[in-house]
Each structure stands twice: as structure tokens, then as C-alpha cells.
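User: Could you write out the 3D structure of this protein bound to PXG? I've included everything you need below.
Assistant: Certainly. Input first, then the structure.
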Amino acid sequence: MEKELLIYIDGQFYPKSEAKISVYDHGLLYGDGVFEGIRAYNGIVFKLKEHLERLYRSAHTITLRIPLKTNEMTRAVLETLRKNNLKDAYIRLVVTRGIGDLGLDPRKCPKPTVIIVTEPIIQIYGAEAKEKGMTAIISWVKRDSVDATTHEIKSLNYLNSILAKIEANAAGVDEAICLDKNGFICEGTGENIFIAKEGKIATPPICTGALAGITRKRVMKLAEDLGYTVVERNITPNELFNADEVFFTGTAAEVVPVTEINRRVIGDGKPGPVTKRLMEEFGRIVKDPREGTPIS
Ligand code: PXG
């Protein structure tokens, strides 16, 4: 039998089949916790520092005191990867409020639960999506406005995104795009969104309730370095339908073209030159040791 993956829970390692937490954990009972989805490429954890900074910011806002200092958390992540002999991996780091009673008062939860799951990369967005582009709908599910359930905080409350994903599934398309309360474009269910029009790139601001994506930030910088103009501004559905190109960015998605939205063809229906260039360059960046933290 193949050796089971080991999961880190509160400083101990457990085989995947035995990695369990209490039903009284407020992460389960109330979605009271924060998380990060991180990736390692070729022995380098891409933007680990930035992911940990965001994790601690999310935790700070919900007054969750993570029991490890950032350098200890870094070590725990790297140790989990080493124990599992992973060089290319998906890393899920979860910190919950911990075990309490059935009431929602976080003061009843003295000790946060820290979980680190690492797995080999499964191609979530396969080669086909990258070559042909993804299909999407704008869903009726509006992104929660800026509060603890928006993605401004990367919390364990993902129902907003999950509802939108259900709509995408029902419509038989790959992904859903959420609007903000004013009807402007916000983001995908687990990706940020960009448009390119006449060589200029735009992406919605974080105040629409979008996550301050780490891939988003890196791709904005990359595009600027390549000579493109990049602006954060409100984008309407009409502009999205009429963009030359639309693409998503995210840890799982990397850079991926969107070629059809609500049955409207985007541009000429094929991944465009700006998207292709960014996909290519981003593929190089993730393997650059300067962009992350080495596992060993
Ligand atoms: N928006 C939302 C709501 C997200 O959850 C992103 C944007 C992209 O952010 P990053 O920092 O990854 O560039 C996310 C990230 C998954 C999965 O399994 C989702 C995310 C990350 C990793 C995996 O669907 N969300």
C-alpha cells in the first residue's frame, strides 16, 4: 500500500485517514477561522511570506490569535512538505477558533486549531482550460459587501462563493463571476478577474469585496514590467462582455483565459495575446527561487 500523506494538526503529524478534529471546533460549527491556499513549485513555496502575512492579517481582524509566530508557521509548513516528500504541492493552511461549546462566543474557545494539509498538485484547471479558455456565467449571487463574510478576509465562510459555483455547475459552465452590490464585476469564486481592452489591463478594486489575491498582485506587477498599463477600477458587465480578453488569476488557476461569458463570446473566442503572454511569463516566475521560500 502507498504510504499515506501526513497532516499537521497542532504540532503533531497524523496519517490522512486519522487526521480529525472535534465536532465542537468552531471552524466547523460557525466557519470561525481563516485559511490560505498556497502552492509549491519545484521545491519552492511560491510567495509563502505573502500568504502568511495575509493569514495573520485575516486572523487579526477576527481577533484570532494564532499560537505560532510567523517563523514557526513557516517551519511547520516546510516540515509538513518535507515529511511528505513533496516538491510540487498544494498547501492548505487552516487556523480555526478551536474547540468551544455550542454557543458562538469565541471566548469559550481557548486554543485555536492549526491544520496544514499538503497534497501533490492535481490539475484543477487542466491544460484544456489554458489552451481553449474557460466558460463562465455572471451569477445572481452578489459578492457579500465588505464585512467578515466578504473575501476581503480569507475566512472559512465560503458559502458566498459556493452558491455561485452551484450556479456555474447548473449552467454547465466552468466558473461563475460575482458582482458587487452595485452591479460591478468583483471576482470569480476562487479567482480574481482581469480584462484587457486595446492593450490596457484593468481589474476590480478590493473594495468590491474581492480577495486581495497574491497572484493578482504579482500579475499586475508582471504586466507593468512587460509595458502594459494596469489599472484598478470598477468594471461593468457590459465592459466584460466587450473586452478583447478576460482572464482569471489565482493560486489554483494561475493565469487562465475566459473565452465565453453568459454565452457571449469574448474577443475572438480564443485566448488572446495579452493573456498568453502573461500565462507564459507567470509560468517562469513561479519557478524562480527569488519568488518564494525553499522547502529544504
Ligand atoms: N478570490 C477568492 C475568493 C479566492 O478564494 C482568489 C481570489 C485568488 O487569490 P490568490 O491569493 O490565490 O491569488 C482566491 C484564492 C480552490 C482554491 O481550491 C481557491 C483559492 C486558492 C487556492 C485554491 O478553489 N482561492
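DSSP finds eight helices and 16 strands in the chain.
User: Perfect, thank you.
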